[in-house]
Specification:
It is a single chain. The longest helix has 20 residues. About 40% of the residues lie in helices and about 20% in strands. The chain has a seven-stranded mixed beta sheet with strand order 5-4-3-6-7-9-8, sandwiched between helices. A two-stranded antiparallel ribbon has the order 1-2. The protein folds into two domains: about 60 residues; about 210 residues, Rossmann fold.
Length: about 300
C-alpha cells in the first residue's frame, strides 16, 4: 500500500469516527510512523509502506478514533517556535496560551528597554508542561524563571521539556499549591498564569480528547470557573516587585467577571487582548499604588 492510499483510507476511517480535521490527523500520524516531516509525504505519494509501519499506523488510528489526543499518540506538541513533550500528566498546550506568552513577553521587553535594573524575575504559576516558563526563558536569556505547580508529575514533565529546550539551568521548579511554598521575600517582575477555568459542571460537555485525557486538575475552575482568579488576585500582590504585572489567560466569556475580581482587590486592568476568534483571552493587570475606596 502506498503513502497516498494510506492517507486516503486513514482519512475516511477517522472521518467516520467523528475525528476533527481527519486528513491532517492521518498525515501527522503517518509522518510520525515514518519518522518524517508531514510535508515530505507529498513528495513520495507512490512510495510503498512496509508492513511493520502499516501495523503501527493501524494501532495509532484505532487509538485516535477512540479520541485519544494526537499529541499523546506522537508524544510531542508544537508551541510557539519550539516543541514540547506531552503526556496525560499535564494539559496539552493550546494556541491561546501562545498569545499569553506573546503579550506577556512584549510587556517585559518594553520594561527592560525603558529602564536598566537587576535581572528580571519571572514566575510561571501552574506551569504544566512548562510551556510559558520555557518560552520566556528562551526569549529572555538573562531572566531568572521560577515555575510552580501543585502536581509533581507535571513538574517532572516540565523539567524534561526545559532540558529538551536547553533552558533547564535557568528555571527553578517548585512543587507548590499556588504560591504557598515560595519564600516570603521573593519578588517577581512578571507573573504569568493559565489557571484552570472550566466551570466544574461543564467539564463533561467538553470534547473527549479534553474531557477524558487532560488532567481534571488542570481544567476544573470550580463552580463558576473563577476560583483560581480569586486566589491569584489575593495571593500575588506580596510577591510582585515594584511595577510588576500579572498576565492571565481567560476562558470564553469570563473577561468582565475576572476584571471585576481583580479591580475589587486593588488591581488595575492595563491590557485586555483578543484571540484570533475575537474572544477576550489575555488579561494584564497591575497593582494600584493607592487602594481603591471601600465599597459601601
Amino acid at each position: 500500500m502506498t503513502i497516498l492510499e494510506i492517507i486516503q483510507r486513514s482519512t475516511d476511517y477517522l472521518q467516520r469516527h467523528g475525528v476533527p480535521a481527519p486528513r491532517l490527523q492521518a498525515e501527522c500520524l503517518l509522518a510520525h510512523v515514518l519518522k518524517q516531516k508531514r510535508l515530505q509525504l507529498y513528495l513520495q505519494f507512490d512510495r510503498p509502506v512496509p508492513e511493520p509501519a502499516l501495523e503501527q499506523m493501524r494501532q495509532l488510528l484505532r487509538r485516535r478514533a477512540a479520541r485519544e489526543p494526537l499529541q499523546h499518540l506522537v508524544g510531542t506538541a508544537a508551541f510557539a517556535d519550539f516543541e514540547l513533550l506531552t503526556t496525560p500528566q499535564a494539559l496539552i498546550p493550546r494556541p491561546e496560551t501562545e498569545l499569553l506568552l506573546e503579550h506577556a513577553g512584549r510587556w517585559l521587553a518594553g520594561r527592560l528597554a525603558s529602564a536598566a535594573g537587576p535581572l528580571p524575575q519571572i514566575l510561571d504559576w501552574g506551569t504544566g508542561t512548562g510551556c510559558l516558563a520555557i518560552g520566556l526563558a528562551r526569549q529572555f536569556p538573562a531572566a531568572q524563571v521560577t515555575a510552580v505547580d501543585v502536581s509533581a508529575e507535571a513538574l517532572a514533565l516540565a523539567r524534561l521539556n526545559a532540558d529538551k529546550n536547553g533552558v533547564s539551568g535557568r528555571i527553578e521548579f517548585v512543587e507548590s499549591d499556588g504560591l504557598a511554598a515560595l519564600p516570603a521575600d521573593r519578588r517577581f517582575d512578571l507573573v504569568v498564569a493559565n489557571p484552570p477555568y472550566i466551570p466544574s459542571a461543564e467539564i463533561e460537555q467538553l470534547e473527549p480528547e479534553v474531557r477524558e485525557h487532560d488532567p481534571r486538575l488542570a481544567l476544573d475552575g470550580g463552580p463558576d470557573g473563577l476560583r483560581f482568579y480569586r486566589r491569584l488576585a489575593v495571593e500575588c500582590p506580596p510577591f510582585l516587585a515594584a511595577g510588576g504585572t500579572l498576565w492571565l489567560e481567560l476562558g470564553h466569556g469570563q473577561a468582565a467577571a475576572v476584571c471585576q475580581i481583580f479591580e475589587s482587590h486593588g488591581w488595575r486592568v492595563m491590557a485586555l487582548e483578543q484571540d484570533y476568534q475575537r474572544i477576550e483571552r489575555v488579561l494584564g493587570v497591575e497593582r494600584h499604588t493607592v487602594p481603591p475606596p471601600v465599597q459601601r
